Amino acid sequence: MARALDFFGGFKLTFQHLTRPTVTTSYPKAKRPKQPRQHGRHVLNRYEDGMEKCIGCELCAGVCPVNCIYVRGLDNPPDHPVSPGERYGYIYEINYLRCIHCDLCVEACPTQAITESKMFEFSFTNRSDAIYTKAELLVDDQGFPQRLPWEDWRDGEAAMTGGWMRATSPNGDAAYEGVVQWTADLGAGVRAAEAGQSGVRDDEATGSKQLRNIFPKHFEPEDVPLQFRGLQGKLNEARAKMPKRRRRAKS
Amino acid sequence: MSWLATTDPLFTNSGHVGLAIIVIVVVKMLLGLGLLMTSVILMIWFERKAISDMQSRIGPQRWGPFGLLQTLADGLKLILKEDLIPSEADRTVFKLAPFLVLVPAIITFGLVPIGGTLTIAGHKVLLQVANPPMGILLLLAMSGISVYGVMLAGWSSGSKYPLLSSVRASAQMISYEAALGMTIVTVVLVTGSLSVHNIVTSQADGVWHWNLIRLGVVPFVVFVIAITAELNRPPFDVVEAESELVGGFHTEYSSFRFAIFFLAEYMNTITMSAIIVTLFLGGPAGWAPNVAHLKWLFPIAWFLVKTVGFAFCYIWFRASLPRFRYDQLMDLGWKRLIPLSLGWMLIVAGFLVAPGWGFMMGAVVLLAYSVLARAFSLGQTREVGVDSVLPMVGARPLPGEVLRSSSDEGSD
């Protein structure tokens, strides 16, 4: 008898799905938040005094597995230096028709000059547009990546560039997790450490969220984090939505 | 015209058919067609929305509010496309087939009473396009004709997959039609009339008089299963099994002819939901408050609610059940539904004569079932025997080898 009733289990399941929210996002209009360690388009960072971090050492070009980076260094002009060291990146080009976003350049960089943002949605109608030069890669005077016409930037995609690097440390040693070993960036200051393997995380400082907290509704009931369960969960959700509405009203 | 007057009060008042009656009939026809077309558009939208909700998707949302105009956009796209006819096709039959499916679908809807009676300009008007005396027989005839549409469409395409599909369609529809007819006979037995209007009015006195309960639930269940198979809807859609037959009988159809098949399929879905409601759920019967001038609206609302409920059930079936294998389908039709509906019909007939006859019929039917069950189990074990099964590949010679050995013998 119980087996005969199992037949109706399928009907129950499909009916339950009517009440669950949809998984689909209307993509170009709305986007899901990116993973904290998403590899996207590169950014050339600057120090807080506006100096460029790149020293033209070409380590990134050397480590690049697909040879998409072309760097030429030049001695800093003594009267108006571009970077604080001896040399600076005179030419810096990345060919995005070749780049595989492996982030090895980020790992190789001794000064954290190159990091990757979370923006990967850019396309070109022209091969020469695919080669980003220093003019496009370098952050602007406020420290934000340049938003080129063919790129689709959304909020938060430039906030924690090179997030994965800050999860451990630039030298990749897990023992240094949470220890700041990177210099301050123009606009952003000293960026907080991303959560690493140990699970210690400061989401407010980094601005990143675990995906399981963003999409609690798409999990099985037992997998939903406690703060999103039941009535309290609905309250929390409403609270999380509040500032967004205010922001919209202002603009 | 006197035979019409036996069931339709529109023709009883006066001996001759006046202008008012003609106008009323034409308006009824146009309204019926309009209602059917609108509901097809809504049904396709509803199905797509509901099934995507059940799969946690969004569904159509681009055209019109909530994507309501998506069906219109699809239809327009289909009309503007090139109309291809395969060179191997039998052109006349190929062009005829879609209409053989469409016309019965429209005619069947004309039989369904969607409300009570209305008095317009002194004429009593049934809210039903037509109420012929042989009503429910017409339903069976029409569903029989639509088999021809599907069958001829597949055959005339001059292509392998549609042909396979049409073979399946004819076998499936014929085998389920038997069970379908038997359950309808049960309903007719209780009502004592073939007229659809009488079937509805006989159930009007409350839920306990609905055929669903009055006949026991079995005919209803059999009818729903058989009608789902008759509609070629999942889980009985072996005729259009995309994973096996590309598109089934309409693989070679394109443009407006394809649209007609699609239209007819959804028309049939709506019509059959309405027929189930009519035959088993009392049609427009239901609670109505005593509001002056608006009382005629409530039966229509009840009818619509019930029909939409059944339309939803079809969608629910589609979202929940996997497709039957072809032999399972035939098993269910011939070995389960036909004996069940036939036996139940006999029992109901017995009870209509006298309770004693009913119980006797029950005993006879039970006895017959046990004989049948024994026969089925014998039949199943027989096939496992050594002689009837082909030897495994490798244990038997390949066709080429057989030919060679026979020709060798010939030369010796």
The most extensive interface between chains reads: A-B, 14 and 13 residues
Kindly report how far apart the N and C termini of chain B lie: 82 Å
The strand order across the widest sheet of chain A is 2-3-5
How would you classify the helix and strand content of chain B by structural class?
mainly alpha
Question: What is the gist of this entry?
Answer:
With 251 residues, chain A is of the alpha+beta class.
Topology:
The complex is a heterodimer of chains A (251) and B (412).
Chain A: H1 2-6, H2 9-19, E1 42-44, H3 59-63, E2 69-75, E3 87-95, H4 104-108, E4 114-116, H5 127-130, E5 131-132, H6 134-137, H7 203-206, H8 211-214, H9 230-250
Antiparallel strand pairs in A: 1-4, 2-3, 3-5
Chain B: H1 2-5, H2 19-54, H3 70-80, H4 91-110, E1 117-120, E2 123-126, H5 135-156, H6 160-191, H7 196-201, H8 211-214, H9 217-230, H10 242-245, H11 255-280, H12 297-320, H13 326-353, H14 355-382, H15 399-411
Antiparallel strand pairs in B: 1-2
Helix pairs in contact in B: 2-11, 2-12, 3-11, 4-5, 4-11, 5-6, 6-9, 6-13, 9-11, 9-13, 11-12, 13-14
Written description of the protein model:
The complex is a heterodimer of chains A (251) and B (412). By secondary structure, chain A is α+β, with helices and mostly antiparallel strands. Chain A folds into two domains: 30-202, Alpha-Beta Plaits (2-Layer Sandwich), CATH 3.30.70; 210-251. Helices cover 25% and strands 10% of the residues of chain A. In chain A, the strands form two sheets. A three-stranded antiparallel beta sheet of chain A has the order 2-3-5. In chain A, strands 1-4 form a two-stranded antiparallel ribbon. The longest helix of chain A is centred in the C-terminal third of the chain and has 21 residues, at 230-250. The model of chain A has no long low-confidence stretch (mean pLDDT 80). Chain B is mainly α and 412 residues long. Chain B folds into two domains: 2-324, no CATH class; 328-379. Chain B has helices spanning 2-5, 19-54, 70-80, 91-110, 135-156, 160-191, 196-201, 211-214, 217-230, 242-245, 255-280, 297-320, 326-353, 355-382, 399-411; strands spanning 117-120, 123-126. Chain B has a two-stranded antiparallel ribbon with strand order 1-2. In chain B, strand 1 and strand 2 form a beta hairpin. Classes of the chains: A alpha+beta (251), B mainly alpha (412).
